[in-house]
Every structure is written in C-alpha cells, then in structure tokens.
Amino acid sequence: MTDVGVDETLLKSVAERVAGEAAELVHEAWTGMNAGREVRVDTKSADTDVVTAVDHESERLVRARLAELRPDDAVLGEEGGGIAGDGVTWVVDPIDGTVNFLYGLPWFAVSVAAQVGGVSVAGAVVEPVSGRRWTAARGQGAFLDGRPLSVNAPERLDLTLVGTGFAYKVERRTKQARFVAELATRVRDVRRNGAASLDLCAVAAGWLDAYVEHGLGHWDWAAGALIAAEAGAHVSLPGEDAELGPDATFAVAPSIGAPLRQALIDSGVGAI
Description:
The chain has seven helices and 14 strands. By secondary structure, the protein is an alpha+beta fold. The protein has a seven-stranded mixed beta sheet with strand order 3-4-5-6-7-8-9. It has a five-stranded mixed beta sheet with strand order 11-10-12-14-13, covered by helices on one side. Strands 1-2 form a two-stranded antiparallel sheet.
C-alpha cells in the first residue's frame, strides 16, 4: 500500500530537477565522445551488455543530489544497487539506452522515479540530447515539457504500432525473434528503439500504440510506466500477468488492449 500522505507534486519536482542535472552531465560526455574523447566501457551480463564510466558518473551525481534534497530516502540504482526503504525509495537509471549512447544514437535518457511500497508515485525521464522532459505524478496526469499527454486510440489490431526490445543473451533473443516475426504479421509494424523508459513514454505520447518487453530491470520501467499509465495506458508490470510471461512489461492504449494482448499470447509471448 502506498502512503496517502506523500507529496507527489514535490517528488515529481525533485525527480525532474535531479534527472535534468544528470542529463546535462551525460549530454556533455556524449558530445565529447562524438568529438573523439575516449569513454571507458565495461561489460555486465554479456559482452553486449555494456556500462560506461558516464553511467557511473551520472548515478553518482543523482545519488549526491538526492542525499542533499531527500536525505532520509532510500536509493536503488542500476549501477550502485541499494534496497527499498520503508518510506520513499528513488529508483534510478543513470543512462537508459547505454548502447545507443555509446554508438552516438540520440535515443537515451536519465530516468528517476519515486516509489512508495514498490509503487511509482512520481517520476521524470529526461533526454540529454533533445532536452525533452517527460514527467508524471500519481493521479495528476503525464506531461512532455509541460504539455499534457494522452495515448492513442487505434481501432484495429492491424493498425497498431508496437514497440519492443531484446535481451542480451542469445538464447532469449532467439525466442524473442520468433515472437516478433509472428507478431509482425498481425499488427501495423514493430519498433525496437533501445531504451525502455522512452518506449513507455512514447506510448504516453501516442508515438507508439503499445510496448512489450521481457526482462526489464526495476529502473527501466519505474518512471516510464507511471508516465504511460498517467497518460491513459493500461500497464502490466513484471509478475502481474502470467500469460504474458513472469517478467513481461506491457503498456497499451485501452482501445486495442484486449485484442493485442491476445495477439501477443497467440504469437508466443508467454514462452519467451
């Protein structure tokens, strides 16, 4: 249960402020990298699962600022770890879309969310290159640079644009490829952009009609899923819909929710 006494508006302001500051650091590093400056790169779960020195620098900045602004709160970060606290816990992805960042693609973001009892109550996703700021607070709607967001209302399955993503390990990627090949015969098209938080925001903005992916970390969806939900999407988080798979994240425009869910199941989503 979430604490009804939490000030979601304040938490959203903190999330946007801190994510924005980290995004400035990331943008400066990205600009320097594209100009030839070397960035240290390590790997995590696989050779294709990379983490850069900038990921660590961004998370250190976020943790330092949260320690100043919210000293009593817990922090859970992709790179620095942590555990949820009894009150507010900040869930941080210092660069969501690190591979895009490393290749020079501008589709990556800093994601910061405030959770209470494991439920997101406020969050911000800030894009370092474009400067776009996606924000939401529980019960207050979702916004892009202050503009209210609302999901699409596709009328037919074959007119539905779906976003997805792939795991780093070959065995699971093989299953995901089979699933996408089947799904692509049922919908308008499938997109793979490489940053889960931004794909969820894209659903909120109507840039995608739906998004589904397996194996996301807590930090990947904590802010983006709230933004999608506050824009009117139906959202299912890992562990909430067994037929989609135990670790599936699914966000969809309500008008197409039921038929698309069935199409995902028929395409083999539960076996990934």
